[in-house]
Amino acid sequence: MRIATYNVNGVNGRLPVLLRWLEEAQPDVVCLQELKAPQEKFPEQAIKDAGYNAIWLGQKSWNGVAILARGLEIKELRRGLPGDPDDEHSRYIEAMIEGIVVGCLYLPNGNPAPGPKLEYKLRWFERLQLHAAKLLSYDLPTVICGDYNVMPTELDVYKPERWVDDALFRPEVRQAFKTLVDQGWTDAIRKLYPTEVIYTFFDYFRNAYGRNAGLRIDHFLLSPHLDKRLKSAGVNLDVRGWEKTSDHAPVWIEID
Question: Which residues form the active site (predicted)?
């Protein structure tokens, strides 16, 4: 099974790019972030015509997450991350597909930092840690993937000295990610490529993609069941070079 995550940066505005990638890559399961579309404006029919079932949690203008499955049943488990009933951001959705729990997330950016947005990000991280621990306790094959808005180490960022005060790289944010992983999750990309420079995001400015001046902020965290079944992983970097594309590239793993 091939599972992919892709911050599409506007599902309707970049629908041709998404459909082209789905046709070429044919992932079995896809987690999308930053739909930037209200619930009723998700392009369900176009996704269905491409061979995918879908569940989604939309939001006007910002945020939004979705899970797609190619010819497979999606059993929705949860909409929204527990722990704050007043949080109206559409940032988390969870489903069961072929016996695997799939959590799709779009973690807050947190900038400008310090400030209220960083505080919200860290609170969101705490809620994620609590929910992730509960998922591990269920003893089911589980993957939590998406745009985490965190570069875990200096290996994951071009010129790290320029990012020391950014909310994606501040020590407390990196520590929050490490605390999450240390529960018993496996960072899939780093398991297979422990020392390789791999980026998943390239800014639209200053020819970042052409210079390979990127960030690794899209991650797969695997429960012990899937850690043992992980076969391969990669980034569809060429998609970042397509016309009118997202500033993220799709990231994927293959499991037995």
Answer: 106, 147, 248
Catalytic residues: 106, 147, 248
CA distances from 243 to 20, 33, 50, 84, 240 (A): 12, 19, 20, 39, 8
236 is in an annotated binding site: no
**Tens of pLDDT, residues 155-209:** 999 999 999 999 999 999 999 999 999 999 999 999 999 999 999 999 999 999 9
Give the neighbor-by-neighbor strand order of the sheet with 52-57: 52-57, 65-70, 29-33, 2-7, 251-255, 230-235
Question: In terms of Cα–Cα distance, which of 7, 150, 9, 134 is closest to 78?
Answer: 134
The CATH code of the domain at 2-255 is 3.60.10.10
- Domain residues of the chain, as ranges? 2-255
Determine if residue 165 is labeled as part of a ligand binding site.
no
Q: Whole-model pTM?
A: 0.98
- Of the candidates 118, 121, 90, 91, the residue with the CA atom closest to the CA atom of residue 105: 91
Return the number of other C-beta atoms located less than 10 Å from residue 237's C-beta: 17
For 133-148, the pLDDT digits (tens) are: 999 999 999 999 999 9
